[in-house]
Amino acid sequence: MSHAVELRDVSVTTGGRVRLHPTSLQISTGTVTGVIGRNGSGKSTMLEVMSSELTPTSGSVLLFGDDASSLSLVERARRRAILSQETMLAFPFTVREVVSWGRTPWRGTDRSVDDDTMIASAMAQQGVDALSGRAVTELSGGERKRVHLARVVAQDCPLLILDEADSDLDLLGRRVIDDVVAAHARSGSTAVVVSHDVNRLARFCDAFVVMADGRIQAHGATHDVLTEPILSEAFGARVIVERRDDGLSVHLPD
């Protein structure tokens, strides 16, 4: 199976602090991988490296087989789209303007001929088409997040990276994100998702990465990784995992 992302002995050290110890990881194409762990465990650092937003101190990152450091910014943007927890904008760009940014990597290519269609479809899919002319600075946190989700959908990349993108979203908004991720994988593309909502991720993730103290503690198929010993060690507390007809239930003792 081919790999969408591969980390080869990647590490990150800033200000004398090791944020990510030497890490190797392969994310297969056409899969959804959940990344979980306590705050400060290295999840976001690993995703920043994976997306080439952060240059590793050592090691290399491959995007669809090519060394990310050899790719231009445009080439990277054609391969992966990123949505993080922070989506604040200081200037009053309209909703449509923000969503249209997702089409920037494709301008001047054959795929740019459908820009208007892609933008309109992405806005409609996220339910923000009625807000098209509104300034994003006037929107609620949840509305802004849906606008940026529409932006990454419009970017139409084979790799989608979501770093706690479900923050600020209500139950319906989180379901929309889940649907986007699931549809992305069904099309043969790949998604990597960081969230603290383990139960939600367990419903649609093929695999999990468990982070602890800047290291990968476990990586594998969902049912192999979401176990009481692995999660209890990672979170430093007893974690109960119940296997039910409708999936897994992960929770702390009452």
Quick description:
The protein is an alpha/beta fold. It is built from nine helices and twelve strands.
What coarse outline follows from CA principal-axis ratios?
A: globular
Beta-strand percentage? 25-35%
Radius of gyration: 18 Å
* Helix-strand makeup class: alpha/beta
Please tally the helical runs, counting DSSP H or I stretches of 4 or more residues.
9
Largest sheet: 6 strands, mixed
Q: What is the strand tally?
A: 12
Lateral strand order in the biggest sheet: 6-7-8-3-9-10
Percentage of residues assigned to helices: 25-40%
- Oligomeric status: single chain
Mean of residue pLDDT values: 92
String of helices and strands = EEEHEEHEHHHEHEHEEHHEE
Spans where pLDDT lies below 50 across 5 or more residues: none
Distance between the termini: 42 Å
Mind sketching the topology for me?
Elements: E1 3-14, E2 17-28, E3 32-37, H1 43-50, E4 58-63, E5 66-67, H2 73-77, E6 80-83, H3 95-100, H4 115-125, H5 141-155, E7 159-163, H6 171-186, E8 190-194, H7 198-202, E9 207-212, E10 215-221, H8 222-225, H9 228-235, E11 240-244, E12 247-251
Parallel strand pairs: 3-8, 3-9, 6-7, 7-8
Antiparallel strand pairs: 1-2, 1-4, 4-5, 9-10, 11-12
Helix pairs in contact: 4-5
